[in-house]
Design goal:
The protein is of the alpha/beta class and about 525 residues long. The chain has a single domain (about 40-285, about 325-460), classed as Phosphoenolpyruvate-binding domains (TIM Barrel, Alpha-Beta Barrel), CATH 3.20.20. The protein has helices at about 5-15, 25-35, 40-60, 75-90, 100-105, 125-155, 160-170, 190-205, 230-250, 280-285, 330-345, 360-370, 385-400, 425-435, 435-440, 455-470, 475-490, 495-500, 500-515; strands spanning about 65-70, 95-100, 180-185, 210, 230, 255-260, 265-270, 290, 305-310, 310-315, 325, 350, 375-380, 445-450. The relative contact order is 0.10.
Protein backbone atom coordinates (compact mmCIF):
# COMPACT_ATOMS: atom_id res chain seq x y z
CA UNK A 1 0.00 0.00 0.00
CA UNK A 2 1.38 3.38 -1.06
CA UNK A 3 0.85 6.34 1.26
CA UNK A 4 0.42 8.99 -1.44
CA UNK A 5 -1.79 6.73 -3.57
CA UNK A 6 -4.06 5.92 -0.64
CA UNK A 7 -4.25 9.60 0.30
CA UNK A 8 -5.08 10.69 -3.27
CA UNK A 9 -7.73 7.98 -3.62
CA UNK A 10 -9.33 9.06 -0.37
CA UNK A 11 -9.17 12.71 -1.44
CA UNK A 12 -10.91 12.01 -4.74
CA UNK A 13 -13.68 10.11 -2.97
CA UNK A 14 -14.28 12.71 -0.25
CA UNK A 15 -14.38 15.53 -2.83
CA UNK A 16 -17.09 13.65 -4.71
CA UNK A 17 -19.24 13.67 -1.57
CA UNK A 18 -19.43 17.47 -1.50
CA UNK A 19 -19.22 19.94 1.37
CA UNK A 20 -20.86 17.61 3.89
CA UNK A 21 -17.59 15.64 3.98
CA UNK A 22 -15.32 18.66 4.48
CA UNK A 23 -14.50 17.57 8.03
CA UNK A 24 -13.06 14.26 6.81
CA UNK A 25 -9.30 14.49 6.18
CA UNK A 26 -8.18 12.20 3.31
CA UNK A 27 -4.73 11.80 4.82
CA UNK A 28 -6.23 10.52 8.06
CA UNK A 29 -8.26 7.97 6.06
CA UNK A 30 -5.07 6.77 4.40
CA UNK A 31 -3.34 6.43 7.76
CA UNK A 32 -6.17 4.43 9.28
CA UNK A 33 -6.27 2.13 6.27
CA UNK A 34 -2.52 1.56 6.41
CA UNK A 35 -2.75 0.85 10.13
CA UNK A 36 -5.35 -1.85 9.48
CA UNK A 37 -4.47 -3.54 6.20
CA UNK A 38 -6.01 -6.90 7.23
CA UNK A 39 -9.78 -6.63 7.49
CA UNK A 40 -10.67 -10.27 8.27
CA UNK A 41 -9.08 -13.42 9.59
CA UNK A 42 -9.38 -14.94 6.12
CA UNK A 43 -7.29 -12.06 4.76
CA UNK A 44 -4.63 -13.03 7.27
CA UNK A 45 -4.88 -16.78 6.55
CA UNK A 46 -4.42 -16.22 2.81
CA UNK A 47 -1.53 -13.80 3.32
CA UNK A 48 0.33 -16.00 5.81
CA UNK A 49 -0.25 -19.24 3.87
CA UNK A 50 1.59 -17.67 0.94
CA UNK A 51 4.49 -16.73 3.24
CA UNK A 52 4.70 -20.23 4.67
CA UNK A 53 4.61 -21.87 1.23
CA UNK A 54 7.43 -19.62 0.06
CA UNK A 55 9.42 -20.51 3.18
CA UNK A 56 8.87 -24.22 2.53
CA UNK A 57 10.16 -23.81 -1.03
CA UNK A 58 13.18 -21.87 0.25
CA UNK A 59 13.96 -24.67 2.68
CA UNK A 60 13.71 -27.29 -0.08
CA UNK A 61 16.31 -25.28 -2.01
CA UNK A 62 18.60 -24.78 1.00
CA UNK A 63 18.14 -26.48 4.38
CA UNK A 64 19.77 -23.52 6.17
CA UNK A 65 16.52 -21.65 5.50
CA UNK A 66 14.69 -23.27 8.40
CA UNK A 67 12.05 -21.32 10.33
CA UNK A 68 11.35 -20.84 14.05
CA UNK A 69 8.57 -19.94 16.44
CA UNK A 70 7.71 -19.63 20.11
CA UNK A 71 4.46 -20.71 21.72
CA UNK A 72 1.90 -18.19 22.99
CA UNK A 73 -0.99 -18.25 25.43
CA UNK A 74 -2.00 -14.57 25.22
CA UNK A 75 -2.17 -11.90 22.54
CA UNK A 76 0.22 -9.62 24.43
CA UNK A 77 2.85 -12.38 24.59
CA UNK A 78 2.65 -12.94 20.83
CA UNK A 79 2.74 -9.21 20.17
CA UNK A 80 5.84 -8.67 22.31
CA UNK A 81 7.63 -11.54 20.59
CA UNK A 82 7.14 -10.02 17.15
CA UNK A 83 7.97 -6.49 18.32
CA UNK A 84 11.20 -7.85 19.84
CA UNK A 85 12.06 -9.77 16.67
CA UNK A 86 11.59 -6.66 14.52
CA UNK A 87 13.60 -4.61 17.00
CA UNK A 88 16.58 -6.98 17.06
CA UNK A 89 16.57 -8.33 13.49
CA UNK A 90 14.67 -5.63 11.53
CA UNK A 91 12.49 -8.29 9.90
CA UNK A 92 10.03 -11.03 10.83
CA UNK A 93 11.11 -13.26 7.94
CA UNK A 94 11.33 -16.92 8.91
CA UNK A 95 9.59 -16.39 12.26
CA UNK A 96 6.11 -17.61 13.19
CA UNK A 97 3.98 -18.02 16.29
CA UNK A 98 2.87 -21.36 17.70
CA UNK A 99 -0.46 -21.89 19.43
CA UNK A 100 -0.04 -24.81 21.80
CA UNK A 101 -2.96 -26.94 22.94
CA UNK A 102 -1.02 -27.55 26.17
CA UNK A 103 -0.87 -23.80 26.84
CA UNK A 104 -4.56 -23.33 26.05
CA UNK A 105 -5.48 -26.13 28.44
CA UNK A 106 -3.18 -24.95 31.22
CA UNK A 107 -3.71 -21.19 30.88
CA UNK A 108 -6.97 -20.36 29.10
CA UNK A 109 -9.68 -22.80 30.15
CA UNK A 110 -12.67 -21.66 32.21
CA UNK A 111 -12.22 -24.85 34.22
CA UNK A 112 -8.88 -23.54 35.42
CA UNK A 113 -5.53 -25.21 34.75
CA UNK A 114 -6.04 -28.50 32.92
CA UNK A 115 -3.71 -31.23 31.64
CA UNK A 116 -3.12 -31.55 27.91
CA UNK A 117 -5.95 -34.02 27.33
CA UNK A 118 -8.41 -32.08 25.12
CA UNK A 119 -10.63 -31.26 28.09
CA UNK A 120 -10.59 -27.50 27.54
CA UNK A 121 -13.24 -25.65 25.56
CA UNK A 122 -12.40 -26.13 21.90
CA UNK A 123 -13.73 -22.67 21.03
CA UNK A 124 -10.86 -21.24 23.09
CA UNK A 125 -8.44 -22.16 20.30
CA UNK A 126 -9.97 -19.96 17.54
CA UNK A 127 -10.59 -17.25 20.12
CA UNK A 128 -6.89 -17.20 20.97
CA UNK A 129 -5.93 -17.08 17.28
CA UNK A 130 -8.18 -14.05 16.84
CA UNK A 131 -6.72 -12.48 19.99
CA UNK A 132 -3.15 -12.99 18.80
CA UNK A 133 -3.85 -11.33 15.47
CA UNK A 134 -5.72 -8.47 17.16
CA UNK A 135 -2.60 -7.72 19.20
CA UNK A 136 -0.32 -8.09 16.16
CA UNK A 137 -2.48 -5.67 14.16
CA UNK A 138 -2.31 -3.25 17.07
CA UNK A 139 1.49 -3.53 16.97
CA UNK A 140 1.32 -2.44 13.31
CA UNK A 141 -0.93 0.47 14.21
CA UNK A 142 1.31 1.58 17.07
CA UNK A 143 4.53 1.51 15.05
CA UNK A 144 2.93 3.35 12.13
CA UNK A 145 1.44 5.85 14.56
CA UNK A 146 4.97 6.79 15.63
CA UNK A 147 6.10 7.07 12.00
CA UNK A 148 3.13 9.33 11.18
CA UNK A 149 4.09 11.57 14.09
CA UNK A 150 7.59 11.85 12.63
CA UNK A 151 6.03 12.73 9.26
CA UNK A 152 3.94 15.50 10.86
CA UNK A 153 7.06 16.94 12.47
CA UNK A 154 8.91 16.85 9.13
CA UNK A 155 5.99 18.58 7.39
CA UNK A 156 5.77 21.21 10.12
CA UNK A 157 9.51 21.98 9.81
CA UNK A 158 9.38 21.95 5.99
CA UNK A 159 12.06 19.22 5.75
CA UNK A 160 11.41 17.73 2.27
CA UNK A 161 14.19 15.14 2.46
CA UNK A 162 12.92 13.84 5.77
CA UNK A 163 9.40 13.61 4.35
CA UNK A 164 10.60 11.54 1.41
CA UNK A 165 12.53 9.20 3.71
CA UNK A 166 9.52 8.76 5.97
CA UNK A 167 7.21 8.10 3.01
CA UNK A 168 9.62 5.35 1.97
CA UNK A 169 9.50 3.81 5.44
CA UNK A 170 5.71 3.86 5.38
CA UNK A 171 5.50 2.28 1.93
CA UNK A 172 8.03 -0.43 2.86
CA UNK A 173 6.58 -1.07 6.32
CA UNK A 174 6.81 -4.74 7.33
CA UNK A 175 3.79 -6.01 9.21
CA UNK A 176 3.97 -7.91 12.49
CA UNK A 177 1.46 -10.39 11.05
CA UNK A 178 3.16 -13.78 10.69
CA UNK A 179 1.92 -17.36 10.23
CA UNK A 180 0.48 -19.14 13.24
CA UNK A 181 0.81 -22.91 13.49
CA UNK A 182 -2.31 -23.80 15.44
CA UNK A 183 -2.78 -26.99 17.46
CA UNK A 184 -6.15 -28.70 16.93
CA UNK A 185 -5.12 -31.61 19.18
CA UNK A 186 -6.71 -34.83 17.87
CA UNK A 187 -9.65 -32.94 16.34
CA UNK A 188 -11.92 -32.71 19.41
CA UNK A 189 -14.27 -35.43 18.20
CA UNK A 190 -15.13 -37.13 14.93
CA UNK A 191 -14.19 -35.85 11.49
CA UNK A 192 -17.22 -33.52 11.36
CA UNK A 193 -16.21 -31.96 14.67
CA UNK A 194 -12.68 -31.55 13.30
CA UNK A 195 -13.99 -29.83 10.17
CA UNK A 196 -16.18 -27.41 12.14
CA UNK A 197 -13.38 -26.44 14.50
CA UNK A 198 -10.87 -26.13 11.64
CA UNK A 199 -13.22 -23.66 9.93
CA UNK A 200 -13.37 -21.51 13.05
CA UNK A 201 -9.59 -21.55 13.33
CA UNK A 202 -9.11 -20.60 9.67
CA UNK A 203 -11.73 -17.85 9.88
CA UNK A 204 -9.78 -16.47 12.86
CA UNK A 205 -6.61 -16.35 10.74
CA UNK A 206 -4.86 -19.74 10.98
CA UNK A 207 -3.06 -20.72 7.78
CA UNK A 208 -1.54 -23.84 9.32
CA UNK A 209 -3.27 -26.49 11.42
CA UNK A 210 -1.46 -29.26 13.28
CA UNK A 211 -3.39 -32.46 14.04
CA UNK A 212 -2.22 -35.60 15.81
CA UNK A 213 -3.05 -39.28 15.38
CA UNK A 214 -4.18 -39.96 18.93
CA UNK A 215 -7.68 -41.01 19.95
CA UNK A 216 -9.66 -37.82 20.48
CA UNK A 217 -11.45 -38.82 23.69
CA UNK A 218 -8.33 -40.34 25.26
CA UNK A 219 -5.78 -37.79 24.07
CA UNK A 220 -2.64 -37.35 26.15
CA UNK A 221 0.22 -34.87 26.07
CA UNK A 222 2.83 -36.12 23.62
CA UNK A 223 5.40 -36.31 26.43
CA UNK A 224 3.29 -38.36 28.82
CA UNK A 225 2.41 -42.03 29.04
CA UNK A 226 -0.84 -43.71 28.03
CA UNK A 227 -1.02 -42.47 24.44
CA UNK A 228 -3.46 -44.31 22.17
CA UNK A 229 -3.29 -43.98 18.37
CA UNK A 230 -6.00 -44.45 15.77
CA UNK A 231 -5.90 -46.48 12.54
CA UNK A 232 -4.71 -44.61 9.47
CA UNK A 233 -8.13 -44.29 7.82
CA UNK A 234 -9.50 -42.50 10.90
CA UNK A 235 -6.62 -40.05 10.89
CA UNK A 236 -6.77 -39.48 7.13
CA UNK A 237 -10.48 -38.65 7.40
CA UNK A 238 -9.57 -35.80 9.75
CA UNK A 239 -6.80 -34.60 7.45
CA UNK A 240 -9.42 -34.55 4.69
CA UNK A 241 -11.78 -32.62 6.96
CA UNK A 242 -9.16 -29.91 7.55
CA UNK A 243 -8.37 -29.71 3.83
CA UNK A 244 -12.05 -29.30 2.96
CA UNK A 245 -12.31 -26.52 5.55
CA UNK A 246 -9.39 -24.69 3.92
CA UNK A 247 -10.86 -25.14 0.44
CA UNK A 248 -14.37 -24.08 1.43
CA UNK A 249 -13.02 -20.83 2.85
CA UNK A 250 -10.82 -20.11 -0.15
CA UNK A 251 -7.47 -20.70 1.56
CA UNK A 252 -6.33 -23.08 -1.14
CA UNK A 253 -2.70 -23.19 -0.03
CA UNK A 254 -3.45 -23.77 3.65
CA UNK A 255 -0.94 -26.02 5.40
CA UNK A 256 -1.66 -29.23 7.33
CA UNK A 257 0.88 -30.62 9.79
CA UNK A 258 0.31 -34.33 10.44
CA UNK A 259 1.68 -35.28 13.84
CA UNK A 260 2.44 -38.86 14.83
CA UNK A 261 2.69 -39.90 18.46
CA UNK A 262 3.40 -43.51 17.55
CA UNK A 263 6.98 -43.45 18.83
CA UNK A 264 5.75 -43.27 22.41
CA UNK A 265 2.30 -44.81 21.95
CA UNK A 266 1.98 -48.50 22.73
CA UNK A 267 -1.79 -48.81 22.45
CA UNK A 268 -4.63 -48.63 19.93
CA UNK A 269 -8.33 -48.34 20.59
CA UNK A 270 -9.59 -50.37 17.66
CA UNK A 271 -8.50 -52.88 15.09
CA UNK A 272 -9.33 -51.68 11.57
CA UNK A 273 -11.02 -53.86 8.95
CA UNK A 274 -8.82 -54.85 6.02
CA UNK A 275 -10.45 -54.46 2.61
CA UNK A 276 -7.73 -56.06 0.49
CA UNK A 277 -4.31 -57.66 1.04
CA UNK A 278 -1.59 -55.16 1.92
CA UNK A 279 -3.90 -52.21 2.57
CA UNK A 280 -3.28 -49.74 5.42
CA UNK A 281 -5.52 -51.66 7.80
CA UNK A 282 -3.51 -54.84 7.27
CA UNK A 283 -0.24 -52.95 7.72
CA UNK A 284 -1.57 -51.39 10.94
CA UNK A 285 -2.70 -54.76 12.23
CA UNK A 286 0.73 -56.26 11.58
CA UNK A 287 1.95 -54.25 14.58
CA UNK A 288 -0.71 -55.65 16.96
CA UNK A 289 0.76 -57.73 19.74
CA UNK A 290 -0.80 -61.10 20.47
CA UNK A 291 -0.35 -64.81 20.91
CA UNK A 292 -0.80 -67.46 18.24
CA UNK A 293 -3.87 -69.63 18.63
CA UNK A 294 -3.45 -73.36 18.29
CA UNK A 295 -6.70 -74.22 20.03
CA UNK A 296 -10.00 -72.49 20.72
CA UNK A 297 -9.51 -73.52 24.33
CA UNK A 298 -7.08 -70.60 24.58
CA UNK A 299 -10.00 -68.17 24.21
CA UNK A 300 -11.89 -66.73 27.16
CA UNK A 301 -15.20 -64.90 27.18
CA UNK A 302 -14.92 -61.60 25.30
CA UNK A 303 -11.62 -62.42 23.59
CA UNK A 304 -11.14 -61.39 19.97
CA UNK A 305 -9.33 -63.22 17.20
CA UNK A 306 -7.29 -61.64 14.40
CA UNK A 307 -6.42 -63.50 11.21
CA UNK A 308 -2.93 -62.46 10.19
CA UNK A 309 -0.52 -63.98 7.69
CA UNK A 310 -2.30 -67.32 7.60
CA UNK A 311 -2.49 -67.74 11.37
CA UNK A 312 -4.95 -66.80 14.09
CA UNK A 313 -3.81 -64.29 16.72
CA UNK A 314 -5.40 -63.42 20.05
CA UNK A 315 -4.52 -59.71 20.51
CA UNK A 316 -3.22 -58.68 23.89
CA UNK A 317 -5.81 -56.40 25.44
CA UNK A 318 -5.72 -54.42 28.66
CA UNK A 319 -8.52 -54.49 31.22
CA UNK A 320 -9.93 -51.32 29.64
CA UNK A 321 -10.19 -53.00 26.23
CA UNK A 322 -7.26 -51.18 24.62
CA UNK A 323 -5.04 -53.28 22.37
CA UNK A 324 -1.28 -53.39 22.74
CA UNK A 325 1.28 -52.95 19.94
CA UNK A 326 4.35 -55.15 19.64
CA UNK A 327 7.36 -53.87 21.55
CA UNK A 328 10.06 -51.92 19.67
CA UNK A 329 7.79 -51.12 16.69
CA UNK A 330 7.47 -47.40 17.37
CA UNK A 331 9.88 -46.17 14.71
CA UNK A 332 8.38 -48.47 12.05
CA UNK A 333 4.90 -47.19 12.90
CA UNK A 334 6.15 -43.58 12.77
CA UNK A 335 7.60 -44.09 9.29
CA UNK A 336 4.38 -45.67 8.03
CA UNK A 337 2.29 -42.90 9.62
CA UNK A 338 4.38 -40.17 8.01
CA UNK A 339 4.50 -41.67 4.52
CA UNK A 340 0.77 -42.34 4.63
CA UNK A 341 -0.08 -38.80 5.81
CA UNK A 342 2.06 -37.16 3.10
CA UNK A 343 0.56 -39.42 0.44
CA UNK A 344 -2.94 -38.43 1.54
CA UNK A 345 -2.88 -34.65 1.75
CA UNK A 346 -0.64 -33.53 4.61
CA UNK A 347 2.06 -30.93 3.87
CA UNK A 348 4.39 -31.24 6.85
CA UNK A 349 5.16 -33.84 9.50
CA UNK A 350 5.56 -33.70 13.26
CA UNK A 351 7.28 -36.61 14.98
CA UNK A 352 6.96 -36.45 18.75
CA UNK A 353 10.11 -37.89 20.31
CA UNK A 354 11.19 -38.66 23.85
CA UNK A 355 14.44 -36.68 23.54
CA UNK A 356 16.11 -34.21 21.14
CA UNK A 357 18.45 -36.54 19.27
CA UNK A 358 19.48 -35.57 15.73
CA UNK A 359 20.57 -39.08 14.77
CA UNK A 360 17.30 -40.64 15.91
CA UNK A 361 15.18 -38.11 14.01
CA UNK A 362 17.37 -38.34 10.91
CA UNK A 363 17.11 -42.13 10.92
CA UNK A 364 13.32 -41.95 10.64
CA UNK A 365 13.27 -39.04 8.20
CA UNK A 366 15.73 -40.72 5.83
CA UNK A 367 13.43 -43.75 5.66
CA UNK A 368 10.46 -41.49 4.95
CA UNK A 369 12.38 -39.63 2.25
CA UNK A 370 13.07 -42.88 0.41
CA UNK A 371 9.37 -42.71 -0.51
CA UNK A 372 8.62 -38.95 -0.23
CA UNK A 373 11.88 -37.12 -1.08
CA UNK A 374 10.79 -33.65 0.06
CA UNK A 375 9.36 -34.73 3.42
CA UNK A 376 9.78 -31.95 5.99
CA UNK A 377 9.20 -31.74 9.72
CA UNK A 378 7.91 -29.34 12.29
CA UNK A 379 9.79 -30.24 15.48
CA UNK A 380 8.93 -29.58 19.09
CA UNK A 381 12.03 -28.28 20.92
CA UNK A 382 10.10 -29.11 24.05
CA UNK A 383 10.61 -27.83 27.61
CA UNK A 384 9.53 -31.36 28.56
CA UNK A 385 13.07 -32.44 27.64
CA UNK A 386 15.86 -31.93 30.13
CA UNK A 387 18.12 -30.42 27.49
CA UNK A 388 21.13 -30.06 29.76
CA UNK A 389 21.07 -33.66 30.98
CA UNK A 390 20.16 -35.11 27.58
CA UNK A 391 23.03 -33.47 25.74
CA UNK A 392 25.57 -34.05 28.47
CA UNK A 393 24.66 -37.72 28.38
CA UNK A 394 24.86 -37.75 24.57
CA UNK A 395 28.38 -36.33 24.76
CA UNK A 396 29.29 -38.77 27.56
CA UNK A 397 28.09 -41.74 25.47
CA UNK A 398 29.92 -40.53 22.36
CA UNK A 399 33.15 -40.03 24.30
CA UNK A 400 32.75 -43.40 25.97
CA UNK A 401 32.34 -45.10 22.59
CA UNK A 402 35.48 -43.31 21.40
CA UNK A 403 37.42 -44.65 24.37
CA UNK A 404 37.91 -41.30 26.13
CA UNK A 405 38.73 -41.24 29.84
CA UNK A 406 35.51 -40.39 31.71
CA UNK A 407 36.64 -41.25 35.24
CA UNK A 408 35.92 -37.69 36.43
CA UNK A 409 32.26 -37.87 35.37
CA UNK A 410 29.23 -39.70 36.75
CA UNK A 411 26.71 -40.19 33.92
CA UNK A 412 23.68 -40.18 36.20
CA UNK A 413 24.73 -36.95 37.93
CA UNK A 414 25.68 -34.84 34.91
CA UNK A 415 22.98 -32.26 35.66
CA UNK A 416 24.99 -31.12 38.68
CA UNK A 417 26.40 -27.58 38.68
CA UNK A 418 29.74 -29.13 39.55
CA UNK A 419 30.11 -30.05 35.88
CA UNK A 420 29.10 -26.65 34.42
CA UNK A 421 32.65 -25.52 33.63
CA UNK A 422 33.91 -28.90 32.42
CA UNK A 423 34.94 -29.77 28.89
CA UNK A 424 31.96 -32.14 28.62
CA UNK A 425 29.43 -29.47 29.64
CA UNK A 426 30.92 -26.93 27.23
CA UNK A 427 30.71 -29.44 24.39
CA UNK A 428 27.10 -30.28 25.33
CA UNK A 429 26.13 -26.59 25.34
CA UNK A 430 27.68 -26.18 21.90
CA UNK A 431 25.55 -29.09 20.66
CA UNK A 432 22.42 -27.51 22.18
CA UNK A 433 23.26 -24.22 20.48
CA UNK A 434 23.76 -25.89 17.10
CA UNK A 435 20.91 -28.40 17.48
CA UNK A 436 18.41 -26.55 15.28
CA UNK A 437 20.91 -25.93 12.50
CA UNK A 438 22.19 -29.50 12.51
CA UNK A 439 18.72 -31.03 12.76
CA UNK A 440 17.49 -28.93 9.84
CA UNK A 441 20.44 -29.97 7.68
CA UNK A 442 20.55 -33.63 8.67
CA UNK A 443 17.02 -34.53 9.77
CA UNK A 444 14.71 -32.56 7.48
CA UNK A 445 13.36 -30.16 10.09
CA UNK A 446 11.83 -27.14 8.35
CA UNK A 447 10.39 -25.52 11.46
CA UNK A 448 11.63 -25.46 15.04
CA UNK A 449 9.31 -24.36 17.83
CA UNK A 450 9.23 -24.25 21.59
CA UNK A 451 5.71 -25.11 22.67
CA UNK A 452 5.44 -23.29 25.99
CA UNK A 453 8.42 -21.02 26.57
CA UNK A 454 6.55 -18.11 28.15
CA UNK A 455 4.88 -20.41 30.66
CA UNK A 456 8.37 -20.96 32.05
CA UNK A 457 9.72 -17.43 31.54
CA UNK A 458 6.70 -15.99 33.36
CA UNK A 459 7.20 -18.39 36.25
CA UNK A 460 10.95 -17.71 36.47
CA UNK A 461 10.74 -13.92 36.25
CA UNK A 462 7.87 -13.82 38.75
CA UNK A 463 9.83 -15.98 41.19
CA UNK A 464 12.87 -13.72 40.90
CA UNK A 465 10.81 -10.56 41.42
CA UNK A 466 8.81 -11.97 44.33
CA UNK A 467 11.94 -13.24 46.10
CA UNK A 468 13.57 -9.79 46.07
CA UNK A 469 10.55 -7.44 46.20
CA UNK A 470 9.11 -9.07 49.31
CA UNK A 471 12.61 -9.33 50.73
CA UNK A 472 15.15 -6.69 51.63
CA UNK A 473 15.41 -4.98 48.22
CA UNK A 474 11.80 -3.82 48.16
CA UNK A 475 11.00 -1.46 45.29
CA UNK A 476 14.60 -1.58 44.09
CA UNK A 477 13.97 -5.18 43.01
CA UNK A 478 11.43 -3.95 40.44
CA UNK A 479 13.36 -0.87 39.39
CA UNK A 480 16.71 -2.64 38.97
CA UNK A 481 15.53 -5.93 37.49
CA UNK A 482 12.61 -4.70 35.38
CA UNK A 483 12.14 -1.01 34.66
CA UNK A 484 15.79 0.01 34.38
CA UNK A 485 16.43 -2.87 32.00
CA UNK A 486 13.34 -1.98 29.93
CA UNK A 487 14.61 1.57 29.53
CA UNK A 488 18.22 0.70 28.76
CA UNK A 489 17.37 -2.18 26.42
CA UNK A 490 14.80 -0.12 24.55
CA UNK A 491 11.73 -2.19 25.30
CA UNK A 492 8.58 -0.53 24.05
CA UNK A 493 6.65 -2.01 26.97
CA UNK A 494 8.18 0.51 29.38
CA UNK A 495 5.71 3.00 27.88
CA UNK A 496 2.77 0.78 28.74
CA UNK A 497 0.18 3.50 28.03
CA UNK A 498 1.46 3.80 24.47
CA UNK A 499 1.60 0.02 24.14
CA UNK A 500 -2.04 -0.25 25.14
CA UNK A 501 -3.07 2.18 22.39
CA UNK A 502 -3.31 5.49 24.21
CA UNK A 503 -1.44 7.51 21.55
CA UNK A 504 -3.39 5.87 18.73
CA UNK A 505 -6.55 6.87 20.58
CA UNK A 506 -5.30 10.46 20.89
CA UNK A 507 -4.76 10.64 17.13
CA UNK A 508 -8.24 9.31 16.50
CA UNK A 509 -9.73 11.86 18.89
CA UNK A 510 -7.99 14.58 16.88
CA UNK A 511 -9.30 13.08 13.63
CA UNK A 512 -12.84 12.99 14.98
CA UNK A 513 -12.98 16.12 17.17
CA UNK A 514 -10.27 18.42 15.86
CA UNK A 515 -9.04 21.04 18.32
CA UNK A 516 -11.72 20.00 20.83
CA UNK A 517 -10.08 16.62 21.37
CA UNK A 518 -9.29 15.78 24.99
CA UNK A 519 -5.97 13.95 24.79
CA UNK A 520 -4.19 11.78 27.32
CA UNK A 521 -0.69 12.55 26.10
CA UNK A 522 -0.34 16.02 27.58
CA UNK A 523 2.46 17.41 29.76
CA UNK A 524 1.01 15.74 32.86
CA UNK A 525 1.24 12.25 31.37
CA UNK A 526 3.96 10.49 33.37
CA UNK A 527 4.91 8.44 30.32
CA UNK A 528 6.85 11.54 29.18
CA UNK A 529 9.46 10.57 31.80
CA UNK A 530 10.53 7.76 29.47
CA UNK A 531 11.02 9.89 26.36
Amino acid sequence: MNYRTETNNARQFTEQQGQTWNAINPEYIARMRLQNRFKTGLDIAKYTAKIMREDMDAYDADSSNYTQSLGCWHGFIGQQKMISIKKHFQTTKGTYLYLSGWMVAAMRSEFGPLPDQSMHEKTTVPMLIEELYTFLKQADARELNHIFQELDSAVESGDQLAQQAIHKRINEFETHIVPIIADIDAGFGNEEATYLLAKKMIEAGACCIQIENQVSDAKQCGHQDGKVTVPHEDFLAKINAVRYAFMELGVEDGIIVARTDSLGAGLTQKIPVSQYPGDLAEQYNDFIDGESLTSLDQLQSGDMVLSRGGELIKPHRLANGLVRFKANTGEDRVVLDCITSLQHGADLLWIETEAPNVQQIAGMVNRIREVVPNAKLVYNNSPSFNWTLNFRQQVFDAWQAAGKDLSSYQRGDLMSQLYDATELAIEADFKIQSFQKEASQQAGIFHHLITLPTYHTAALSTDNLAKEYFGERGMLAYVDNVQRKEIREGLASVKHQDMSGSNIGDDHKEYFSGDQALKASGVNNTMSQFS
